[in-house]
Amino acid sequence: MSTPEKGILIVSLDLELYWGVRDIARLDESRDKLLAARAAVPRLLDLFTRHEIHATWATVGMLFFHSKEDLLRCVPRTLPRYARRKLSPYEDLETLGANETQDPFHFAYSLVQAIASTPRQEIGTHTFSHYYCLEDGQDVDTFRADLNAGVSAASRLGIGIESLVFPRNQVNEGYLQACAEAGIRVYRGNNAGWMRIGITLSSKRFLKGLLISAKKGQWKV
User: Fold this and answer.
1) Pick from 90, 91, 111, 156: most CB atoms within 10 A?
2) Domains of the chain
3) CB atoms within 10 A of CB 191
4) What percent of the chain has pLDDT over 70?
5) How far is Cα 63 from Cα 100, in angstroms, rounded to an integer?
6) Average pLDDT for 34-40
7) How many CB atoms lie within 10 A of CB 193?
8) Model's pTM, two decimal places?
9) Backbone phi, psi, residue 124, to 5°
């Protein structure tokens, strides 16, 4: 009788702080949750260490910096021109605090360092700016510039990037060649089923409206 093979559990986490929710939630209503997320990182690292768990942390590139001055020097020259300007975090750069101490919602240099120094932990990229790959107004050239900026931000800390998680599950297969050129070997795809597909934010608003109307017994298109 053959010995059964051990199962494999893949742990893939997104580290994004306010960059991941800035277009859907105000900072003043998100502060407590974001601080709780920061506090959870060292606790998870301790748990993973004790149980020898391998995990990948897909991290927004803007979090790799410890100061606003440092971040601004690394912003790509070519930026996305989203049809909905609110989607671009580059619009917010001037309002950031000076450093991680003053602005723990946009900077996570210390957390990145903690992850990098913990055994069996991999740091991947969640793009530099939490880039949306299916939204109107962006293209492969601006995606390439953003992704390269994310890889470069990690490289400055001696971290090599080989994996990618597309923000909001907006997997754009037309961009995979640009990923390969940036050194990305693995990306997280979407599971089968309509709940897991990556769709544009405008489409999500449309679907949300349909669901609300359905609950009220009214269908509005």
Assistant:
1) 111
2) 12-189 (3.20.20.370), 194-221 (no CATH)
3) 9
4) 84
5) 9
6) 98
7) 7
8) 0.85
9) -105, -175
